Amino acid sequence: MSATATSTPPPAAPKAAGGKGGRTRLSLPVILLIVAGALVALSAVRAITGAQDLTSAGQISAALSLAVPIGLAGLGGLWAERAGVVNIGLEGMMILGTFFGAWAGWQTDPWIGVLAGVLGGMFGGLLHAVATVTFGVDHIISGIAINILALGVTTYFAKLWFNTGEAATKGGSPKQSPPSEDITSITIPGVSDWLADIEKHHWFLVSDVAGILGGLVTNLSLLTIVAVLLLVGTFFVLWKTAFGLRLRSCGENPIAAESLGVNVYKYKYIAVVVSGGLAGLGGAFLSLVTSHIYNEGQTGGRGYIGLAAMIFGNWRPGGLAMGAGLFGFADALQLRSGGQSVHALLLLLFAVLVVLAVWKAYKQRWITAAISTVIAAGVLVWYLGTDTVPTEFVSATPYVVTLLVLSLSAQRLRMPKADGMRYRKGQGK
Description:
Layout: H1 2-7, H2 28-49, H3 57-82, H4 90-107, H5 110-134, H6 139-161, H7 165-169, E1 185-186, H8 191-200, H9 206-217, E2 220-221, H10 222-240, H11 242-252, H12 254-259, H13 264-290, H14 302-312, H15 317-336, H16 339-362, H17 366-385, H18 391-395, H19 397-409
Antiparallel strand pairs: 1-2
């Protein structure tokens, strides 16, 4: 018993939410109040700066399409880490999804391409599960190896399959595939046009709400709807079923789970393979919906950003969706509007930092309050002294947002207790 405790100490039971020393989970009314406050702030920034694209239907539609692959990658990370396996290999599994999705999509049907992308990601997840669960390889090392392996494999096969024969005559090259057909998109007739008319008036808050809703009902890909259903389904399966309880117990205390008859290896394998499939689906979305072709380097680090969105969401689907939406919004902003809209966001960042400084001062955390105040002053000077921001900063906006969000939310995070720990069968006996 002492040897077991030394190799993998069982984690202490988590404190009850809202209990003494614990962190209170945000209730639905509080979350809705935060969302409403953010919307009012964004509307005010739009009205003050004249950056009308901040809440336009086009911006929201683009943000949604960019958020889906990030959200799917984060959802894959959620499945794996809830079972105790850190999945840094999400980027590589997305790469496999983009390649095999496009490879099957241009030859047959885009939905078959989606299936191929999922299977490619699941293969990457299986490799990660074999390495980490069966052989006990360090999770970070295995994930990095899969990222490197996926890049090498897809580069090789792209030169082999896309640069010869029929593929080459249809637009293929060593770095890209021939284009595939579109996956069906839907627009709600009448509602979309009505919301667009309201948005054109640029009324405070009302037009902003119309723009946001318009982006959600115009040219909505069916694969986006599938992604939303997977998000809801993940919450139901992991938090409302006996299967989900057993899987999450493997990430909290696998020794205790094994002692109660749970086949820890089986649940870890299922979680990591599902994780790879979700990441592969995110990659297939990029190659079949966003661009209709495979391009080398297409994922652009979205697997890592998905992992950051999952951490920001505190390993829960709802928070993950908010994080993916935020990162997708920042990405769409820099792609669509460039310097003007990003410059307008400096004013919003100033307001957030001021609120943070006041809150920290109320909590008597004077050093943090002082740092926030100094940074807020610097951001205000930057905003008042310029009309736009450099192109280099604009392109880095999604990654800067990632760092800021993670740094601001780090103190409230609680990862699964046994996440990343090596587990060997029989430790619970």
